[in-house]
């Protein structure tokens, strides 16, 4: 589904490389934690997957798209097969929860008659069917993140990318969001979650890819392969 | 398509103050351009009236047979530049002179012999009333054996030519400058709208909207704002025109206003400016993010 091969990324703004010699692979149905301290390169890896950035060298493949050579026309097609969730939720303040979710369908040209039922389905999936008409300001942080996840899910993505989705949430809400992402993963969607919440990561028993200063220092899957 | 209209109108209503500000700014930019247009139209009308006075007088030798003169007049009338030819007899010339030159009336009364020769008075078609054409026609007239002399006030026609040229250049430069200022102002107001909606644009891109899909509502919004600005500017111009007309002002020919085709062009220009401003602003933003 996703493959990084000797990827390096240097930003034009200067400073050291954001990523160096990164190689890993994410297969079908996997749940992967991307961990590391702030500035380690977690967000850059996610940005490379959804083609917000291009690698300076090496190769990135995501859902069959070759990111270094992806064209402007292909980027929307790639993103329609990905779901993306951020720490700051990125909801439109002047639209209700249902409208925020429907917006993701509308901009991709979905048929108008299927939009309401698909919105209801994902709202039920994230447990917020009763909040359809609420505006973001009327929701708690955890609820807003659930709406953001529902929006990411509404296009039935093959891969869900979550960049610090629990970063703004308290412990309880964080566990709730993580559980929701696990449930989504159970339906077959690949989940790649960047986080520095080590407590959550350690307790999960999921695959961990750890970054330090732009280099991959630990991959629990590779470790297991070595053991076996 | 429905989504396009909905998003454009939603954006309008959500950013009501900014939208009103944009329309007003566009309206004032176009209003200034429109005012200049009105001045230009009225100057042209005044110049046109002066141009109508351009006349060539060809003095005819006394004793020229009337039959030969009639044939020649037909030939002259067939010149592409000529609008009309009128034969003025000696008596008519004297009567006219008495009427025009009151101070010499007694002198004319005293003379026993009419000193004024008969003449042909030529009026030229619009577009041929410049020094070059007038001179050309005068030269052709001199070729007729019965023509004694040709007068057309060379200095005056050349001055009119210069006035026309200066008017054209100054008008073109000022008009272009106003239009450019309008484009810049409209570009800036639409850029503010784009920046205000940067978050929405970034979300649209993340969920897989194509750039053209993102541009659509902005382009429509820009076109609507430009059109509304154009309507407002037109009404302001109409107001100013009515005010001046009520005061009885005008450049001798009565105050002129835009023709319907100008109004249509004005509104289309406003719409195009809005559309162009949006296209540039959104395009620049999309390239940046």
Task: Give an account of the 3D structure.
The complex is a heterodimer of chains A (228) and B (289). Helices cover 35% and strands 24% of the residues of chain A. Chain A has 228 residues and is α/β, with parallel strands linked by helices. In chain A, strand 9 and strand 10 form a beta hairpin. The longest helix of chain A is centred in the C-terminal third of the chain and has 16 residues, at 171-186. With 289 residues, chain B is of the alpha+beta class. Chain B has helices at 2-14, 16-51, 66-77, 90-100, 105-110, 131-142, 154-196, 198-206, 211-246, 260-288; strands spanning 55-60, 82-88, 119-124, 147-151. In chain B, helix 1 packs across helix 9, helix 2 (16-51) packs across helix 9 and helix 7 packs across helix 10 (260-288). The mean pLDDT of chain B is 83. At the A-B interface, helix 2 and helix 3 of A face helix 1, helix 8 and helix 9 of B.
Kindly summarize this structure in a few lines.
The complex is a heterodimer of chains A (228) and B (289). Chain A is α/β, with parallel strands linked by helices and 228 residues long.
| Biggest sheet architecture of chain B | 4 strands, antiparallel
| Large-scale geometry of chain B | elongated
The helix-and-strand class of chain B reads: alpha+beta
**Number of H- or I-type helical stretches of chain A:** 8
Task: Kindly report how far apart the N and C termini of chain B lie.
Answer: 26 Å
Mean pLDDT of chain B: 83
Number of strands of chain B: 4
Strand content of chain B: 5-15%
What's the layout of helices and strands?
The complex is a heterodimer of chains A (228) and B (289).
Chain A (H helix, E strand, L loop, with lengths): L1 E8 L9 E8 L4 E5 L6 H8 L7 E6 L2 E2 L7 H6 L2 E5 L10 H10 L8 H11 L15 H13 L5 E5 L7 H16 L3 E5 L3 H7 L2 E6 L2 E5 H8 L1
Parallel strand pairs in A: 3-8, 3-9, 6-7, 7-8
Antiparallel strand pairs in A: 1-2, 1-4, 4-5, 9-10
Helix pairs in contact in A: 3-4, 3-5, 4-5, 5-6
Chain B lengths: L1 H13 L1 H36 L3 E6 L5 H12 L4 E7 L1 H11 L4 H6 L8 E6 L6 H12 L4 E5 L2 H43 L1 H9 L4 H36 L13 H29 L1
Antiparallel strand pairs in B: 1-3, 1-4, 2-3
